[in-house]
Amino acid sequence: MAKQITPLTDSKCSGAKPKEKDYSLYDGSGLILYIRKSGTKVWRYKYKKANGKDGLMTLGNFPSLTLKQARDKRREYEKLLAQDIDPIEHEATQKVKKSDAFSFEAVARDWHKEYTKTGRWIEHTSIKALRVLESYVFPLIGDKPIDEVKSKDLVVVLRSIEEKGLTEVLKKSRQRFNAIFAYAISRSLIEDNPAYFLKDIFVLTKKTKHYPQLPLEQLPELLQRLKVDNGYPLTRLCTAFTLHVFARSSEIRFARWSEFDFKNAMWTIPAVRELIKGQRFSDRGAKMKTEHLIPLSPQVISILEDIKVYSGMTNHVFPKNGDPQGFICDKVVNDTLRRIGYDTEKDVCGHGFRGMACTALVQSKLFQKEAVEKQMSHQERDQVRLAYTHQAEYMEERKAMLNWWSDYLDANQESYISPFDFTQKLLSEDVIDFKYAKLMK
Q1: Which residue out of 351, 374, 398, 399 is catalytically annotated?
Q2: 396-441, pLDDT tens digit by residue?
Q3: Are 402 and 256 found together in one domain?
Q4: What is the extent of the structural domain holding 16?
Q5: What pTM, to 2 d.p., does this model score?
Q6: Is 436 a catalytic residue?
Q7: Residue 233: which region, alpha, beta or left (left: phi > 0; alpha: psi -120 to 50)?
Q8: Are residues 436 and 312 part of one domain?
């Protein structure tokens, strides 16, 4: 039979004297008056947690906290326990809510810090994410307590971003709102995610940016203009290199000599590069965050040998003029194209070289679409298809592809020849049997 507990009285609480050891007086249902040998009297509340372990809380000192007030607190905690809410966790949450740490900005900064620690972001992405919050979100809702931020408040923020035409910022902000509120829920700061239904409110459509590219019929003119360009030699060579390998701007701009294997004619672009202090974004590697291989044609190796004259004594393939620790400007190819007479908004730009190469490779009728896409470093959007093709590197075909493209550029130095006619010419001369044998079955 359970021991009968006689509830405490005010006089019994007041009359309790200290002893040689600390001791407890019980009021029942977990409420305890703890008398220390120093004479201090402290109210405690003992209860069972959901995991079966004991929870023990300090409520306050007697007589500052009276018997009646202590019992009122006990009743509050009993109600919480009936709702499966741990009183200790509840009190911790309430304390946070009364502090500055409960504002949307404080919680968002905590989320950003924790997410950065996961390693899912490279440094500049983490910096950019925080900058977006500071520029477009915190000024509007940063001071609001996290539990007072409603869906309509988030819509206001997103509409303001949309009005600025920042489609990518809009998309990322909507995603990050979901993550921030999910983080707040995990910390028991809120119970519902006001960002959850935003996906049904916003239809994010981003106009595809089409980079201008020359019709292949104008290749001879482009090649002739590049040949007589009188700009800085490394700039001209960088443009020629870009045309031949059709890689992305940052992949080329931040290239290191250590990435090139001349013996095996291969350029390996790492997923992430070493960040050079003071050189923003210099840790950028392959666009898709996975190692990307670019076979080197004899023409490209020749271009690289010429480049070595200007940068072979440095670690960087394309160092900044006058600063071997820096990198060439990201506009260098477009500046060269403008210098030789092209409008990079309408005629052709450096990124347009990729489209020109892709068009020619497809029209040649020699290469599989999957191999071309792999060399272009395009991400497969069909996840089922990706599961079957992600291991297929098509490396032999890609080696032939880069050789064919450089040969095709050479064939267009004086006059135009179509990709299909060039292939037929190679067939008639039995060149394909020698250089591209594995393509002919």
Answers
A1: 351
A2: 999 999 999 999 999 999 999 999 999 888 888 766 655 554 444 3
A3: yes
A4: 10-91
A5: 0.58
A6: no
A7: alpha
A8: yes
